[in-house]
Amino acid sequence: MKRTIGLLAVCQALMMTSQTMVVTTSALVGLALAPVHSLATLPYALQFIAVMTVTYFASLLMGRIGRKRGFLLASAVGCVGASVATGAIVAGSFAFFCLGSFLFGIFFAFSQYYRFAAAEAATDEYRSRAISYVLAGGVVAGFAGPWIAASTRLVVGGAEFAGSYAAMLGLYLVSALILGFIRFPDTASTADDGAPPRPLAVVARQPSYVVALLASVVAYGSMNLVMAATPLAMQARAFSTEQISFVISCHVLGMFAPAFITGHLIRWFGVLNVMLWGAVLLAGCVVVNLLGETTGNFWISLTLLGVGWNFLFTGGTTLLTTTYRPAERARAQGLNDFVVYTIISITAVGSGGFHAWFGWEAINVGVTPFLVLAAALVVWLRLRDRAAPVPS
């Protein structure tokens, strides 16, 4: 079990390293290839559109063919995407770079389920730690992605960043190789102790499912909106690139470093308590942002934003795994990730416009009601289930 979870954590690290490389380079490549500058972020947007449209069907497909075949298929799509993107940069084709970006999104849609695969491989008491350890792969990605992108940027002469996307091909190949050594539990079977699967609407109406889903949505939506607007807010206040990079690095560390202990915290204190702490830390980020605009304010708030996201999202994922039977997991997980990544897409694409139209303070005030809602729902569920605690 621990070997499987460890290998999935490596796959997660490789996936997030490639995702970080895309974040680092996509807009710059788009700016160089797009016929007009206003289309520079279109490839990045297409990646999110692909994730949003494919994620539910990816879960259903893996429910039929199994995790290993699904993840290997995704790795193959990622290899094609990296090859197409590399060739597009060399040939100067914006259209093919957009196609490669869309294929990256398909890969990311499948690979988001590494955390659920880890939960399925773990025993009940180890489940929260399995999810947390897989998410910890982001620690590596936060530093490896930008470093690989920068160090391979000029490898292909006359085609800046072509080498970076060729390096991504290597990451996907390594990921496929590792997947070949993982023995996944059988998820293709629909057997569930003779009980037929319930309709998705019945599963999704459970209080625990609703709270888990909304907690993940609030965690990712608020984090993505504030994080994406932070460089714009700091730039508008004449902070240097080095200062902005430092703040974002603190944020990435805050997002993923706690993953080494979040699973233990869930086991010791209960999943709902950890989720509540997550909402409180996210609210603390808003308070610090509204109290001042110094470097200290930004790095403290972005660190709180990262840790709060980790607690609330890891807790939400853990809670979700308690709400469905094995025969129901494909649809239940698919609906959860479809909603979550729809919100991610909206906040990622719209954060720049929100900052331009409403300003930095309004963004922070705007996420506050959602954080209050998430905290209130967690408290409500804890009071409701006090007589029968939610498994962690």
Q: Which key phrases capture this entry?
A:
Growth Hormone, Chain: A; 2 domains
Q: Overall 3D geometry?
A: globular
**What number of domains?**
2
Largest sheet, strands/sense/barrel: none
Number of helices: 16
Low-confidence stretches: none
Distance N terminus to C terminus? 18 Å
Question: Which CATH first-tier class of the largest domain would you pick?
Answer: Mainly Alpha
Any idea what the radius of gyration is?
Answer: 20 Å
**Approximately what portion of the residues adopt beta-strand conformation?**
under 5%
> What letter string, H or E per element, gives the SSE order?
HHHHHHHHHHHHHHHH
Helix share bin? over 70%
Give the CATH architecture of the largest domain: Up-down Bundle
Q: Return the CATH topology of the largest domain.
A: Growth Hormone, Chain: A
Report the mean per-residue pLDDT as an integer: 87
Number of DSSP strand runs:
0
Structural class: mainly alpha
Structure summarized in a few sentences:
With 392 residues, the protein is mainly alpha-helical.
Would you mind describing this structure in some detail?
The protein folds into two domains: 1-185, Up-down Bundle (Growth Hormone, Chain: A), CATH 1.20.1250.20; 198-386, MFS general substrate transporter like domains (Growth Hormone, Chain: A, Up-down Bundle). It is 80% helix and 0% strand. The protein is built from 16 helices and no strands. Helix 1 (2-33) packs parallel to helix 6, helix 1 (2-33) packs antiparallel against helix 8 and helix 7 (137-151) packs antiparallel against helix 8 (162-179). The longest helix is centred in the first third of the chain and has 32 residues, at 2-33. The mean pLDDT is 87.
